[in-house]
Amino acid sequence: MANKNLNILQEFNILYLEDDKNLREHTKDVLEDFVNNIYPVATSNEALSIILNNKVDVIISDILLENENGIDFLKYLKEDKNIQIPCILTTAHTDTKYLLNAIQLKVENYIIKPINIKELLNTLHDILLPIIQQKEIQKNQNMIKTISAVTDSKQVEVVNYIFNNLNNDNLLIASYAEIMEKISISKPTLIKLFKELAEKKILTKTQHKTYRFDQKSLEAL
Amino acid sequence: MFAKKILSYFDTIAFSYKTNFLLFIIAGGMVCIIFLSVISIFSLKQDFDVLFERRTKPLVQLEEIKDTYKINIYDTFYDIQHDGISYEHATEVISLAKQLIGDGWIDYKKRIDSDFYKPSYVTSLITSAYPITSIKEKKILQTSIMNNIEKKITTIDQLMEEILYLLKYRKTEKAFELVDKLYFEINSINIYFTSLINYDLNLAINEKRKTEKVFNIIIIISIISIAFVFLFSIILSIIIINNFKKLHNSLELKVAVKTKELQKLNDSLEKKIKIEVTNNRKKDLIMFQQAKLASLGEMLQNIAHQWRQPLGSLTMIIQSFQTKMMHGKLTDEFVDRKVKDSLLLAKNMSNTLNDFRNFFNPDKDKTEFLLKDCLDHSLELSKYLLEKERITFTCAIKDNLTINGFYNELSHVFLNIISNSKDALASKDKGEAKLICIVIKKVNDMAQIIMIDNAGGIPDDVLPKVFEPYYTTKYKSAGTGIGLYMSKQIVEKHMSGTITCRNIKHKLGTNQLHDCAKFIISIPINQ
Hints:
- The complex is a heterodimer of chains A (221) and B (527).
- Chain A has a five-stranded parallel β-sheet, sandwiched between helices.
- Chain A has two domains: 6-135, Rossmann fold (3-Layer(aba) Sandwich), CATH 3.40.50; 151-220, Arc Repressor Mutant, subunit A (Orthogonal Bundle), CATH 1.10.10.
- Chain A is of the alpha/beta class.
- Chain A is elongated.
- The two termini of chain A are 30 Å apart.
- In chain A, 51% of the residues lie in helices and 18% in strands.
- Chain B is of the alpha+beta class.
- Chain B has a domain at 362-527: Histidine kinase-like ATPase, C-terminal domain (Heat Shock Protein 90), CATH 3.30.565.
- Helices cover 72% and strands 10% of the residues of chain B.
- Chain B is built from ten helices and seven strands.
- Chain B has helices at 2-12, 15-81, 87-113, 121-129, 136-168, 172-326, 332-360, 371-388, 407-426, 483-494; strands at residues 367-370, 391-397, 402-405, 434-443, 446-453, 498-506, 514-524.
- In chain B, the strands form two sheets. A five-stranded mixed β-sheet of chain B has the order 2-4-5-7-6.
- In chain B, helix 5 (136-168) packs antiparallel against helix 6.
- Chains A and B meet through helix 1 of A and helix 6 and helix 7 of B.
């Protein structure tokens, strides 16, 4: 179960739409340990009011509800209300009719009951990971931009150049002259920077004009 | 031999020909007899008439001549002898007598010579066939007598001439001498006449005899022909009767043979029927099995659904222990709660299973049970399918009745009808309400269960056949076509009740009238 970092789920709110009271309660008991907030509801009306009033990141919905259909509700949300929230459908039916409808709705996954909690959590993880990553990237970029704004901008430009020109084997093939052509930096400063990187084993020279970037050295810092 | 051949031939010809032949023989015989007798009678009558006229007249004539001789001539001469009359007067009388005698004799001769007696055709035919002693040789006697008479007449005439001549000249003695001679002659001629008369009489008698003989022959022929016709008719009748008997016997024989054949056929048919009946029973058994399997499938779907939900919950509970453990939140209180829940779920699942297992166990004995319980149970079993099709069902238990019967079989019947209603309702438009209404009430010592659905009723061409085996309107996969047949068997044979269905219009508790199918099951309460 620990293959994936399920801790990322801790930040998210989940709406759980299920008409069977027993299953709803037990699933809630399981999921509440993994997520920030879980809203267990029995009908689409309750679900809609929760969606409109709270931040909901993922909807887990049963297909056959009491007197209604989960797919119809999701369709209503996506097409009529234009609320795009990732969805996972759970059902006891292996009916292809539902499957086709689900694919047309572009739901994120389709889980057959009885629910395997691992599968559910993995799916949640898969859905939420890109969101987390997106956030992370945004954060890093902001950080770099902030750092470059307060420190020597030339050195940041060189680092930027190095990462942009790393090939698939994490090798940088360039001479000082080539770097200096691109970036207006004095040679002593450039040499000093490379020396510093080599000392910290971030960028080690393997042969003439070839440097290797070592990711592990970053984690050791 | 010949007769036998004819008889055998007669046997072979067609029956209608025989009867026609008989009719022809009888009719022809009768006509012949009548014809023959009429002809014979008329010819005989003619013969008698002719005989009488022909034989009596000459006799009379001869007698007249004889009388003339005796009276006129003899008496006249006697008168003359005794001076009774005058000469003139005597001559006159004698000449008159001569005249009469001459005329009479000529007449007689003419009659004898001219129209010789001609018998009628029939008589002559018979006489030629049966020759009767001829009288031809006697003819000579007649001729000689006649010759003698003629001679005598001439002698008498001469004598009279002489006498008259002598008298004229008054030679009385000589005349009287001659008169005596004349007397003698007259006497002799009279004797001749008498013999001629006798001869003629003999002839007449002879002819009469002949006629009598002819008559006898005719009578004999008639009798023979009558006897012949009679005999022939009787023989023919006997033959025909025999024929009838034969025909009757042969027909009887044929009928017996056919009857035997029929009996055989009947026996073999009976055997066949027995075999077919046993086959049918087997088929019925298989059919019942099929029906049970079909409903088993449906029930299995029910079980599957009813198990799925608790199974989902149980799965979740089991997994929750793991996740709670992971998060270090596995408290005693949590375990207690989850175990309690799981046990409850497991118990429910077990109950469901028992319900269905009981349902498929055949009832061995009749039991007393509440109709309502059986109905509720059936509805419970089919609840899932009804919910799936969004069918609303309402029950109205007007009388809480207890009946004695086979619980599971009745439950089968309910399920069958509900299942049929469900199938019919499933094909309805989604917009309309799908309703099933069930009423239990008591009607005249009978428990009546009325099941109504608003699926539009049963089509008229299907309605009379719904209880027939293997009749189905569904696709092969959807039904075996024996559900209602089995229901009928159960209700009628096992519960001694009745089951009927018809189409009605009913509001079913709503505002509008629906086209409904109505099934009525009646089961006796006191059994």
